[in-house]
Amino acid sequence: MQAKPNLLLISVDQMRGDCLSILNHPVVDTPNLDQLARSGVLFRNAYSATPSCIPARAAMLTGMSQRHHGRIGYQDQVPWDYEHTLPSVLAASGYHTQCVGKMHVYPARNLCGFHNIVMHDGYLHHNRMRPSTPVAESFDSCDDYLPWLRERAGADSDLLDLGLDCNASTVARPWHLPEALHPTNWVVTQSIDFLRRRDPRKPFFLSMSFVRPHPPFDPPQAFLDMYLDADIPEPVMGEWAQTEDTEKHGLNPVTNKGIVPKHRLRRAQAAYYALITHIDHQIGRFLQAMHEYDVLRNTVILFTSDHGELLGDHNLFRKTLPYEGSAKVPFILADPGGMLHLCKNTTNDRVIEIRDIMPTLLDAAGAPIPDTVDGASLLPLAKGEEAAWREAIHGEHECKDMSNHYMTDGLQKYIWFSQTGREQLFDLRSDPQELRNVAEDGRYQASLASWRERLAAELAGREEGCSDGRRLIAGRPAQTLLQEAFR
């Protein structure tokens, strides 16, 4: 057996933290992910500090908090020039590094330390704006899936063929081509091909990165059929939720709020769950291929998502907001061959964040962890060792008038909306679905004041000026980037 384990990072896009059947989800079925959890540790309080694609992936790739990677909102076309990344450190430590699927960096062909990338970022608007986008940055030149698809399905095939927008969280229809041509299957097909042509003298690090279950909600028909007649619960609705939609925002297929027609929303829920089960089955396909190539027994596997999907909770959709459906993610650290001696088939309730991925995998590889990394290795927790751990995490996201900061220790969650000063406090122990805002409940005033002080201290010295270190200051312009991080 080789001295260093192979490393497999499986990331999906926009998957809620509760969508695992091992967590007793009332509908979704994830047999292969359940088995991964049984062969390792399931972390039940994993969060995305900046819950949208670009900033979350910066944390994943660099191990930095948003204060240091500098991305506190969604902004495309900002160069990725980080000194240390997960693949660059592993490559320097003797690993053969490969990414298949989504990167969402800039420029799109930036290797970010990987030896090679086979790319599909999904539909990105800035890459599709023609003719203003330079050819070197256009979608046709920076996507590997679409040329592959056109060779098999016809030269006119495109990602727009179904008429679904890439952010349409409220509409759905089945995939129209053979399942083998779906982007989810393509990621696994290309990943299996990497097993064939990898350097056998080196351990490998493979990032297998799926675009789904991010919209478009287009599962193959067989998977959609699994959920169309299922008893799908309605989204949770907090007492504080907006229950009127006088401007009819909910009729917009790419809405982030509003009252969506029930039949449309239910079909979107079914398709979202179907995409997750489709990914699960394809992960099962890859695990079988790993067994055939005799690498499953010496590979450490980490599964997670960059952020969640509100899917109608509190009449909200998509991501960027700090509620559980958006900010909490699935997180499994699996060790099928027992190389790391994890406490298998266990759960852990410590609060962790996407920035912990890089130090965890570097620790598993015996590679050095750069000083730039803010996250911490999860291996001591996964081995059941007594270890000091963070008390809480701070998250945030620019979101216009809903720009927000949050802090949570897994027991309570404090939310502050930076433009209005509005506060929310949820007792996650008794109210895990965030149905009741207790910020004005007299019994919670001491907790509220404590969280407010902690956030003020966390934001002290930041360029936005929304804290003087002692108090929070509302109304300062929200930013998508911290300029100080890019100087």
From TrEMBL:
According to the UniProt entry, its GO molecular function terms are: metal ion binding; sulfuric ester hydrolase activity
Q: Name one Pfam family in it.
A: Sulfatase
> Which InterPro entries does the UniProt entry name for this protein?
Alkaline_phosphatase_core_sf, Sulfatase_CS, Sulfatase_N
Q: What is a single cellular component term in the Gene Ontology annotation?
A: cytoplasm
Q: Which PROSITE patterns match?
A: SULFATASE_2
The Sulfatase N-terminal domain is annotated at 5-367
Could you list this entry's UniProt keywords, alphabetically sorted: Hydrolase, Metal-binding
State the source organism's domain of life.
Answer: Bacteria
* SUPFAM superfamilies xrefs: Alkaline phosphatase-like
Entry annotated with the keyword ATP-binding: no
Family to which the UniProt record says this protein belongs: Belongs to the sulfatase family.
Name of the protein described by the UniProt record? Arylsulfatase
